Amino acid sequence: MSSTLKRALSWIGSALGILGAAFVGLKLLNYSHQLPIDKISISQWLGVAALSFVYGASGFLLALSWRDIVQYLGVNIRRDWAVWAYGVSQPAKYVPGNVFHLAGRQALGVSAGIPAWPLGKSMAWELGTIASMASLFALLIVPSFCGVPTGIALLLFACVAVMFIVLIWRFFSPDLARAAALQLVFLGLSGIVFAMLFRLLGGEWNLILVCGAYVIAWLIGLVTPGAPAGVGIREGVLFFLLRGSIGQAGLLEIILIGRLVTASGDLIFFLAASLGFSGRPTGLQVKTT
Predict the structure, then answer these.
(1) Which of 1, 57, 207, 246 sits between 20 and 30 A of 276, alpha carbons compared?
(2) DSSP structure class, residue 215
(3) Are 204 and 246 in contact (CB under 8 A)?
(4) How far apart are the C-alpha atoms of 289 and 272, rounded to whole Å?
């Protein structure tokens, strides 16, 4: 591939990320007009800001997970480059179409010397593994529909999750198992962030149920075609699953602020990856095995 084409692909990937960041900014502006600012205290806003940073930091788990998947497919890339490429391209998921973050990452990878075919396969594997890990969280919401004790549901979830990862390790590879484990941690952390937000803003403290509901809502948003970053879909699922935990108006406000937390976190991850990791990498940072 010519150096001119590589540069063009790199700029395309970066441009898609910047476009996504602009969409995130517009979303944040839109959310700010809908928020009941006068009803939320300064201490609560500080809590929201802290949770946004935690969510942003969790993006590094996804970047490292993607790197492990690429490595499973026979391509070894540097960790700092993986974080840079993943973080720069990730905001493009907010662009209508819900595929531009994948296109941006593909362009950045090809421009850096990664073969296009394993790079494309890595994204399919990424979606498949994270959807599989997310589906396990359905076990955490079972107690809200039947009489199963929460402790039993949590124990069953832990056992099944460990079994899944061990099976992936045994029948696929340690790299893919590590990727799935990182995704599981990301999903759990995301659910905990929302559960803490839920409690911070007046909801009942039910960590297991709220965490499970959030991840299942996230999964449904992920698999719904055309929904940018699952916007609208996840909120509807959360409202259905958590409607008995707080009043309708309060729940809608929490869900809206939850979207503010995730959008802000994605923007924080974008800025951290853009400014803190390896600049614009070259093909010399990629080794195929």
Answers:
(1) 1
(2) H
(3) yes
(4) 29
Quick: pLDDT tens for 229-287. 445 677 778 877 887 666 565 777 787 888 889 888 988 998 898 887 654 444 434 44
Asked whether 224 and 230 are in contact (CB, 8 A), the reply is yes
Which residues does 205 contact at the CB level (< 8 Å), separation at least 6? 195, 199
Provide DSSP, 95-151. STTS-HHHHHHHHHHHHTT--HHHHHHHHHHHHHHHHHHHHGGGGGGGGGTSS--HH
Give the rounded distance of the alpha carbon of 85 from its chain centre. 15
Q: Is the pTM higher than 0.90?
A: no
pLDDT tens, 79-126? 888 888 888 888 777 665 566 667 777 777 777 777 878 888 988 899
**Residue 195 · residue 243 · CB < 8 Å:** no
